[in-house]
Amino acid sequence: MKAEQRVMADAESLIDAATVQFIASARAAIAKRGVFHVALAGGSTPKGLYQKLATAPYSEQIDWSRVHLFFGDERCVPATHDDSNYKMATQAMIEHIAIPAENVHRMETEAGDAAEVAKHYAATMERVLQGQPLDLVLLGLGPDGHIASLFPETDALKVTDSLTASLYVEKFSSWRVTMTYPVINSARQVIVFIAGQAKAAIVQDITSDAVKGLPVQGLAPKGDYYWYMDTAAAGQ
Q1: CATH number at residue 49
Q2: How many domains does one find in the chain?
Q3: Is pLDDT of 212 > 90?
Q4: Per residue in 193-212, is it b (16+ CB within 10 Å) or e — as a string?
Q5: pLDDT tens for residues 54-98?
Q6: Which distant-in-sequence residues (6+ apart) come within 8 Å of 102 by Cβ?
Q7: What are the b/e assignments for 33-66, b being 16+ CB within 10 Å?
Q8: Cα gap 123→163, rounded to integer Å
């Protein structure tokens, strides 16, 4: 297990480095176990990664038939909604790569209330993963320290007996479904993307321990743990 902070000159350099890391992780997992299980994140930096992975020569360096895509969290909106992480990932990458439809495991947020969606997705994960950890979890970092949809002062932070949790995020007036700490922390590799000047203050709070109890501080991965930052985010 390793824990590293990697600081890149800018967001573009960060995406370049993350693309290399994603491909290396996928190829290693497929060579060792025949399959690569990854949880995708929402946000602009992950979107840039997906767009790069969908283009040559990068798209040709992964056997996508052996990749299974999951989602770390999702807003309870239809799959066609602009706020949908699934829609973003589909337009940025999924519709441009040779991945079987049955290997894309989206949270079916139109299927019922958030609790039912969470329960169904946990069952899907159990069926596909068969007790194995995710090979890679991608995460963004919110200015309030949230990762996935693990937001400050929500009950989802306390869930340890399920792979998923549902929650209502008051400040966004939205229901969400998220993977829980046990799933994320058991992954073979976790990457947190932190880009832009707007994230500098929260990075300062975390690294100086000025603020306690932030959701990101609940991360304690058993596998390799990386922060990928640009200089704007790491500036303070």
Answers
A1: 3.40.50.1360
A2: 1
A3: no
A4: bbbeeebbebbebbeeeeee
A5: 999 999 999 999 999 999 999 999 999 999 999 999 999 999 999
A6: none
A7: eebbbbbbbbbebbbbbbbbbbeeebbeebbbeb
A8: 9
